[in-house]
Amino acid sequence: MTAQLNPRGDVAVLVPAAGAGVRLGPGRPKALRLLAGEPLLVHAVRRLAAAASVHTIVVAAPIAEVAAVRELLAPIAPVTVVPGGAERQESVAAALAAVPAGPDIVLVHDAARALTPPALVESVAAAVRSGHDAVIPVLPVVDTIKEVDADELVLGTVDRRALRAVQTPQGFRRSVLAAAHAAAGDALTDDAGLVEKQGVPVFCVPGSDHALKITRPFDLALAEHLLATGLRTRTLDS
Ligand code: C5P
What we know:
This protein has helices at residues 40-49, 66-73, 88-97, 118-129, 174-182, 191-197, 217-228, and strands at 11-16, 34-35, 38-39, 54-61, 80-83, 105-108, 134-140, 145-148, 154-158, 164-166, 170-173, 203-206.
C-alpha cells in the first residue's frame, strides 16, 4: 500500500542514492542492492514515509535508473525522483532544487542507512524546529583511534571522548542548507561539513545503531540479521 505523506508536514527529505557502491562488490548501484529481497532504497524510503512530519521526499537516482527508481518507489510512497550527479554533493544539490515551496526543514539522508528508524527522523527534525540551524545524529566512538602516517606508523592516540561518529539524516533550516550549497567549493562527504564552513553551529543529537551505513558485505549481513530478528538490539554494557 502506498504511504501518504503529511501535506501539513514541515520536512523535506533528500535521499542521495546515485552512488555506485563499489565497496559492496560488483553489482547494481548500492541503493538498489537487495536487503531481505528488497532494494536498500525501498527500505529507506518506507521508513522516511512513516515519519509524521515528512511532507516531501526527493530521491537522486543514478541517471540510467531514474525511470526504474520511479517505478520501484511508486507503490511505497509519493516520491520525486531526479537524476543524481557525479559526486554525492551534486546529487544532494539536484534533489534540493526539486523541493517544492513549503517545507522549512530539509533533511539529507543516505539511502545506504536503510534501517534508520522514523523516530530518528523525527528527533533530528524536532531539533531543527526548536531553533538549531544544523543538526546531526551521532554515536560515541567505541574503538581506540590512532593517527598514522603514510607508512602505517602510529603518530599518536586521539582522545575518543571528544569524537563522534556521524550518521544521517542530517537536518537543516532550508535557507541554511541552500546557502551552504550555493557557496560550496570542494566536494565533502556530508552536508553538515558544508554548513560548518559557513560558520553555522552544528548541534548533535543521539543517533541510532539501526542507522548503520550499509557499505560492506558485512554490513549487509548484519542488516539482514537485524531485520530477521525484528530489529532488537542491546549493547553488552547496558
Ligand atoms: O559513497 P558513499 O557511501 O559515501 O555514498 C553515500 C550516499 O551518497 C549513498 O546513498 C550514495 O548512493 C549517495 N551518492 C550519490 N551520488 C553520488 C555518490 C554517492 O547520491 N555521485
